[in-house]
Design brief:
single chain, alpha/beta, Rossmann fold, UDP-galactose 4-epimerase, domain 1, two-stranded parallel sheet, 42% helix, globular, binds nicotinamide-adenine-dinucleotide
Length: 322
Amino acid sequence: MTACLVTGAAGFIGSNIVGYLLEHGHTVIALDNLLSGYRQNLAPFPQVEFIAGDVRDAAAVERAMQNVEVVFHLAASVGNKRSIEHPLDDAEINVLGTLRVLEAARRNGVRKVVFSSSAGIFGELKTLPIREDHPVEPDSPYGADKLGAEKLCLAYAKLYPLECVALRYFNVYGVNQRYDAYGNVIPIFAHKILRGEPVTIFGDGEQTRDFVNVRDVVQANYKAAMARGVSGAFNIASGTRVTINQLVAMMRDASGLPVTIEHGAPRPGDVRHSLADISAAANAFGYAPSVDLANGLNEYMAWAKNEMRNQAGARVNAAARG
Ligand SMILES: NC(=O)c1ccc[n+]([C@@H]2O[C@H](COP(=O)([O-])OP(=O)(O)OC[C@H]3O[C@@H](n4cnc5c(N)ncnc54)[C@H](O)[C@@H]3O)[C@@H](O)[C@H]2O)c1
């Protein structure tokens, strides 16, 4: 049994990690300020000690770190768009927040920190598939701050007896990923399809993306945490890619609903193709993605339908209460 701290535990990926850790007999402390997370994501896990706290608050981080062996550090201001709107917040949470987590981790004798990084560190993609040594030229504060945080993790792994792994996620999707203004393409399309609204494809739809299911991201976190003596930065993706046109067709099949497509102008700054080389994570800690996109989308669309029903039910109840 391992004592774990999950920062950003109430979020999409964090809550999936919490569930997996508990299933495997580990104990979990959850730290989250609910900036973009949902308390209800942790409702199925009453045994978790939840600390409503901020990674910018050294005292809260220190309190959460007591007697912890492994830290999964996911708390972040997420996404390029938010970082362009709030660049100082982004740096304070993503860089200084990570540094606070590292400081508390080393002081408290933590064995390992697994940090959630992002493919956003690469910026414009130059070669495919993308290996870890691809040039890093982020084109947003978010990418730059994730890169800075990653470098801090790797420096701490050199300076102290603290193992640190940075996992560079590509496009993650899956259960507990809600639609919001900063959402990724799959929740946006799901939201539109389930409401009978047209989906917008920017450009010709032949651009490709490497979508990885959250179950595989959880697997990567877990295997990286349990592997002894492993530090470094690794791509986490499916190692396969689909076009956006193919994605829409698969989501239509998964939903069983008709889909109307609108085409918009290509968005400046969008990369044309994305595909990760995942062999480094496979070699270092046995990462092997296991959820194929069709199955993952079936599961996700079923969850999203249910979620939509629950939200509608909650609205009806609220209206009845007046
Ligand atoms: N979803 C993706 O496709 C993707 C891709 C690349 C990297 N990531 C990274 O994975 C991690 C998890 O992302 P997610 O998709 O689950 O997003 P999310 O927004 O659902 O989760 C982030 C969590 O961090 C919490 N948080 C934010 N600021 C905080 C702070 N100052 N103190 C404490 N908690 C704070 C939020 O409330 C939220 O619960 C993030 O670090 C993100 O940058 C995600």
